[in-house]
Structures are given as structure tokens and as C-alpha cells.
Design goal:
The structure is a homodimer.
Chain A lengths: L2 E4 L9 H20 L13 H4 L2 H17 L2 E5 L6 H10 L13 E5 L5 H11 L4 E6 L6 H24 L2 E5 L5 H9 L2 E4 L13 H9 L4 H14 L9 H14 L4 E6 L5 H15 L7 E6 L8 H6 L4 E10 L24 H18 L4 E8 L2 H22 L9 H12 L5 H12 L1
Parallel strand pairs in A: 2-3, 2-4, 4-5, 5-6, 7-8, 7-9, 9-10
Antiparallel strand pairs in A: 1-10
Helix pairs in contact in A: 1-10, 1-14, 3-8, 4-8, 4-11, 9-14, 10-14, 11-14, 15-16
């Protein structure tokens, strides 16, 4: 077991009979998922992906990653939402949030096409100057504005720099298996392509080619990542929440929400967990934030944010709970030097490992926040390995599905994401949006 | 005016008489602040700081920054909470979140002492290898665990690398004016020191030496930053919310909170705004999150997070509102290349500037979110200049003070931050915490 749910710090806030009361609902949700009888059942490809992934494509991903590592200094990954968060989360968690600042024998990796910022694009172009570049564009349709624009810019850059022939060897396309203009174009020009599976939504796609190619380029052991996910797939097959921590987490989220805890804060104690928290926020926020419902997902990195949002969590409005990811073995060691002058009064810590101090900060914070009225669910993660991370990614994916069914939503759609896009297209004058444009122009003129 | 509050997208959610009803309370809060008769009145040094700052010290800051720029490749800033968020927010906003990855004639700047992570420390040490280093330790007392430990590590590094004499020229200390062990030690050894003012809390300290030295090292025009802040100081002196957008923002926050909007999401449309949002979260979360009260501060960067939390905001629980910072002139230009193949169908945008598209994304999102039931307060910022940013920092500081008084809290204390520290010290066996340690050990043994 790479993950253990510790309920000591949530127990004071949940009555025993609440577990009993929600168990039949969890069992029903489990049945919906395994029968594929629930809402959104066309998007359950992630469930068995860690076992049933396309082995031929997986081998091509590894080969492409090796080729990219050899060919370039800078690897530009173009995608938005689920097409960038998973890969970035894994690279930062397993390598470093400072990955691009550290010496290494793998390329720098930058993410583009996930905003509409002119300054960000200008900076990425400056970073590419005088360096060898490969790109991976990730877009199911090829028509999403942000990645499409970035693909135009970087394709132009590569074709100018290497010619059309040379660029062809440096452009990797992750898109629909057969449909869509991007797939058609890639096949015509001869780019190597990988598949955004039809039955895996963006936020569940980290273990498909969407996430795996950039992850492999960073040098992460993708075999271990997939093995961990598959171990979690096997581990969380029993609907009984006394035996299934994944389902217990899903149950606790719903119990606490119904008690008025409307915000869930994901807590990490290491900077390498920040993008994982962003991935988690998309996973849960987009899966559950609909029909006027859903826990609001927020995140903090302690002890940093104990000196920021810490005050609020300790003593502000009591409508929140925390889910703490506690990494038992971080794999790094840093001893605290002795100071003969002892100007900070910390000589009682001389020679101690920072991990020990961080652990006590965590334990002290658990006590403090529980005393302050904040339930804390603790998820102990064995270590900072690809295996354990794969395990955790799957843990959250499955917990999210069960939790969404308990909440009474379709955890696999995202109808609300279209609203801004339609307005934007209309305002930009996209052909076909004439009527909506007239309506919005009239609102603007008021 | 560098900032303009647009109330078009909050108007559907607020009745006219609510403004009238809250005006006397705003006037009372204004009086508490100007009379210095409110709670926390020992910490109002920030109010006139943009005019009354120590000119002699300010000149020394500039000289030290020039010396640091000449002496080093890597500048390590050691501090936590308010001792790092302000500087980092300003450097990222005005320079870039990719500042350390871009070519430039100023040193790389890394922040340390703001976590207890062994891996982060190891990475920073690796980054320093073979490069010239200066450090700035920022700690009022010198005894806060995180920065104290980092100072031990980096002082050791510098003394090994340059000797005690050489290190003395590379260590800059921002601390109490006269008290504290760090001040005593710095004076004894001969480090140049700068002042953490007694009457300015950490989260209000960005325009003191705390923020200004690192900001100046990055090459930001601190004169313009201070001038902008001072212009805001002069602009927001009238208690009438029809004439004072700063106070109107404070009033709106409280009106919306009382209507059940318990979470405020700060929205930016540029990656360079992310750390500004973190600064803002500390400012408001720590000032207002107490006595069981306060808006929960969250943040997103669009369009990135429209593909993450966007679904929730559009269609989830309706207990939130957004405050959008809209930068009118971002100072960068990026035209969208034409694609003869038009594979993405976006040729209607060929030749358009990304800023234009970003603006339409913003306008489209405002309509969509308001239609979805989310009030949107829009703060238009003139441009991405040091002057305008200084103006905005002061805008938020003063709005925070007024808002905290409207809420009925002391906006200038942070009693809740101590709780985890006391527990941590007890668990770590710090001398003097024996009784608390026994109590916590007993809880752990249960």
C-alpha cells in the first residue's frame, strides 16, 4: 500500500454512524462505476488504463522521448487544462519545480498554449533562441484556441529554423485517433502522432499519451508510474469503506460537505507538490463543480503558507477542511548546521535533518488546526517515487469518480467550460457566431 | 488614476441602498484609520510609508542593490510570509515569473527560508555551485525557524567559499532596528543592515526595506514603485465610496460576504500575476481570517484555469465572487501567424495581437460568469509599470484595512500563526516547552 488514510484528525468531526449511513451509497456508486451504468459512462477509459494501455503506442512514446532527449535542449509542450496539468504535476513532483533551473541530461521543458499571454509567448521564444527545440502539441480537436495559437507560433519557428523537413522530425502530435483537422494535417505532413483516447476525459488523461510523452522526456520512470497506478487499480476494488481508503476518502469528502464544510484545502509540505495540487484542483473542481454543487478545491504548501493562509485556516470561517498529503520518505537529506553563536536559539536542532523538523511542523499543525475546528484527513504517501505517485494519481481519480456519484453529478462532463468560449468566439467575430455577437455587442453598448 | 473599479458586473447582485447603508460604516472605518483609534493602531506605519520612508536608508538600499548586482550571479533572499511574498510578487509582475530562466544583466533571485524542505534546500545549493552568491536574510527577530535554518546553511556556504571577511561583503541583513539577536550579531560581525519597521506588519512591508532590497536587485525602478504608492495614498483619502474606489472595493467585499459569498477569487489573465495573487491572499487572509470570520481568499490565472476551476466557477456552489485585475496595457505584443492550411479554423484571427484575444476572453468570461450567478468586481489597471503596481499594492493595503474594520476584526494582528509554531517547538523539544511537549506526547500516544 503506497497510501494510508489516517482518520485520527477527522474523527472528532464525524460520527461513527455517518460511515454506516453512507456505505450503501458508496456501494451504489461503486456499482455504477463497475457496471458502467452511471452518468458519463462513455468516459470510463481511465479505469483500466493502467492495465489495458496500448503497449505498441507506449513503446513508441518511449522511443519518441529518447529521440527528443537527443534532439533538443528545450522541449515545448503545447496544451491546456488536462493536456498540461498532469505532465507538469508529475515532472515537478518527481523531478523538481526547479527542473528547468537545475543541471541535468534531459531537455528543459516549458508549457505553452495554456494561456493567451503575449509576454509569456515572447519569453518562451527568447528562451528558445540559439537552442535546439522540439515540440509536442496536445489537442484532441486541434481547434482549441490557446494551444492552436501556440502551435502556429512554434511550428513557424521550427520551420524557419530547420526547414519543413527538419521540423517534421521535431514535431510530435497528440490528438484524436482518427478524426479532427489536426490528425488529418499531421498524417499528411508526416508528424508522429499519439492518441488522446476517446473515452478518457482531459483531467483523467495523465496516464495516457497526453501525459506520458512529456513525462518520459523528463526522464521519469514511466514503467514504475504505470505499475503504481495499476497496483492502486487492483487495491481499490472493494466497496467496503473500512477496507478501501480511496472510497473512504470519497465518503469523508461528502460527509464533511453535508456538514457545511464547503471548501477542501489540499495541503502539501514540499514545494514539489504545488502542481500536483493544481492537477487535483482541476480533477475535483471540474468533476464536481456543477449543478450548483461541489466542494470548492483550494491548496496550500506548508510551512510557506502557514505564514499566509495559516491564520485563516486556524481561526477564520469554519466552513473548510484540509486533506494533507504526507510524504513519509522525501528522498532528500539536509542537516542543520551548528552555530557556535546560536544567534537564533536553534542549537537544539543542530545536526537534525530538515525532514524531521518538517514532520514536527506537520504534526504540530495537525494538532493546532484540529483544535481550531478544522477536520484534517491525512493521506500518508510512502515516498517520492514514480510508483507511489502513480498509485496516488489513480487513488484520486477513482475517489473523484465515487465522490461525484455520491454528490449526485456527472463526474465526467464539463458543460460550464463552453460558456466563456462561446462568448469569446462571438466577441472575436468567429464565423458562425454572428447572432451571439450581436447580442453581446448590445450588452456592451448598454 | 492607475486603477479604475468597474461595477457593471457586480451591479446585478447589489442593491443601490446597500451602498448607502454601508457608507456610514466606511466613514467610521476611515476615521478609525486616520485617527489611529482602531484595533491594531500600533501597526499603521504602512499608511504614510510611501511618503515618509527613511530617505537615507532608501539610498543605502539602492547602493546595496548595485553592489549585489555587481558581486553575484545568484541572489538568495531568505524570509517567510511577508518577508518574501511582496518582493517575489513585484519581481514576477514587473520582470517575469520566468525571471531566472531569461537572459539578463541582473542576478538570478531565489527565495529560501520559506519552507522546511530538504529537497528545495539541496536544489538551491546545487544552483549556487560554481556561481557567485550574495544573500539577504529578512527576519525581525532572527529566531523564526525557517529563515534561521536557511541563514545557517547559506552563511556556512559563503564563509567556506569566501572566508569570513569575504562573506561579510555578501551578506545583507534586514531585521529589527535595534533589538533582537540577529541585529546584535550583524552589528558585531559588520553586516550591512536594513530595518523591518516596528509599526509595519509583515504583510504590509513590501514597500519597506523588506521588499525593496530584493526588488531593487532585480532592476525594478523602485522610485516609480514608491511614487505610484504615494499617488494612491493621496488618491484614497476621501471616505465617500462614490469617489473612492479603494473604499468601494472594501465595501463591496463586505456587502457580498453578508450576502453569503464567502469565497473571493482573485482573477488575473497573465502568468505574471500569480505571485501577486499569493501576496494578496496573505494580505487579506491573514488580516481578516480570524474570530471565525473572513472571506476565504483564492486565486486563478485565466485562461489557464478556465480549463480547471472554470467549470466550478461557472456552475458550482454559488458562494463565491470574483475580483478581476484587468491590465489594460501589458507592454508586450505577439501577433498570431497566418496558416494557409487553416487547420485550426482560426484564420479569422491571423495577424491579431494576443492581447486583443486575451481581452475578448476576459470580456466573454465576465458575461459568462455573471450569467452563471457570480458577481465580478473589475479593477482596471492602467499598465504593467512599477508606478501602476505601486499604486495597486497601496490600493489593496488600504482596502484591506478598511475591509477588516468593516468586518469587525483587528486587521493588523495574526494570533493564529502562533498555534502551529508552539506545537512544533514543543514536539521538537525546544527548551522551555517541556509542559506542552508532555501534553502533545500524551495525545500522540493515544
Amino acid at each position: 500500500m503506497s497510501i494510508r488514510l489516517v482518520d485520527t484528525y477527522v474523527a472528532p468531526f464525524v460520527a461513527e454512524n455517518e460511515y454506516a449511513a453512507i456505505q450503501p451509497m458508496v456501494t451504489a456508486a461503486h456499482k455504477m462505476l463497475t457496471d458502467r451504468s452511471g452518468l458519463g459512462n462513455a468516459f470510463l477509459g481511465w479505469v483500466d488504463l493502467p492495465r489495458d494501455y496500448d503497449k505498441e503506442e507506449y513503446a513508441r512514446i518511449k522511443a519518441a522521448a529518447a529521440k527528443i532527449q537527443k534532439q533538443c535542449d528545450v522541449f515545448i509542450v503545447i496544451g491546456i487544462g488536462g493536456s498540461y496539468l498532469g505532465a507538469r504535476a508529475v515532472v515537478e513532483f518527481l523531478k523538481s519545480p526547479l527542473y528547468n533551473n537545475l543541471k541535468k541530461d534531459t531537455p528543459d521543458i516549458y508549457f505553452s498554449g495554456c494561456n493567451i499571454s503575449a509576454s509569456n509567448m515572447q519569453e518562451l521564444l527568447a528562451i528558445c533562441e540559439g537552442r535546439d527545440v522540439c515540440i509536442n502539441v496536445i489537442s484532441k480537436s486541434g481547434t482549441t484556441t490557446e494551444p492552436a495559437v501556440a502551435f502556429r507560433v512554434f511550428r513557424e519557428l521550427l520551420e524557419k529554423k530547420y526547414g519543413k523537413e527538419g521540423a517534421r522530425e521535431r514535431i510530435f502530435v497528440t490528438t484524436d485517433r482518427s478524426r479532427g483537422t489536426l490528425k488529418g494535417f499531421a498524417d499528411k505532413v508526416g508528424y508522429e502522432t499519439f492518441v488522446v483516447p476517446d473515452d478518457v476525459g482531459g483531467r483523467f488523461s495523465v496516464l495516457s499519451a497526453v501525459g506520458l510523452l512529456p513525462i518520459a522526456v523528463s526522464g521519469v520512470d514511466t514503467d514504475a508510474l504505470m505499475a503504481g497506478a495499476n497496483a492502486a487499480r487492483e487495491a481499490y476494488a472493494d466497496p467496503d469503506i473500512t477496507k478501501n481508503d480511496c472510497y473512504k476518502y470519497a465518503a469523508l469528502r461528502n460527509i464533511l460537505l453535508r456538514r457545511g464544510k464547503t471548501t477542501e484545502i489540499l495541503v502539501g509540505y514540499e514545494p514539489f507538490m504545488q502542481m500536483l495540487a493544481e492537477w487535483w484542483k482541476q480533477l475535483f473542481g471540474e468533476s464536481e463543480g456543477k449543478d450548483g454543487k461541489g466542494l470548492f478545491p483550494a491548496s496550500v504548501i506548508f510551512s510557506t503558507d502557514l505564514h499566509s493562509l495559516g491564520q485563516y485556516i486556524q481561526d477564520g470561517m469554519r466552513n473548510l477542511f484540509e486533506t494533507v498529503i504526507s510524504v513519509k520518505d522525501t528522498g532528500a537529506t539536509q542537516l542543520i548546521p551548528n552555530d557556535p553563536e546560536n544567534i537564533d536559539g536553534l542549537n537544539f536542532l543542530s545536526g537534525c535533518d530538515l525532514n524531521y523538523v518538517n514532520g514536527m511542523a506537520q504534526q504540530g499543525t495537525l494538532f493546532a488546526h484540529v483544535d481550531g475546528g478544522v477536520p484534517n484527513v491525512v493521506l500518508e504517501l510512502a515516498d517520492r517515487s514514480a510508483y507511489s505517485l502513480g498509485y496516488m494519481l489513480y487513488f484520486f481519480e477513482k475517489a473523484c469518480a465515487i465522490s461525484g456519484y455520491l454528490l449526485g453529478v456527472n463526474p465526467f462532463d464539463q458543460p460550464g467550460v463552453e460558456a466563456y468560449k462561446k462568448n469569446m468566439f462571438a466577441l472575436l467575430g468567429k464565423p458562425g457566431y454572428e447572432e451571439q455577437k450581436a447580442a453581446l455587442d448590445a450588452r456592451l453598448a448598454k
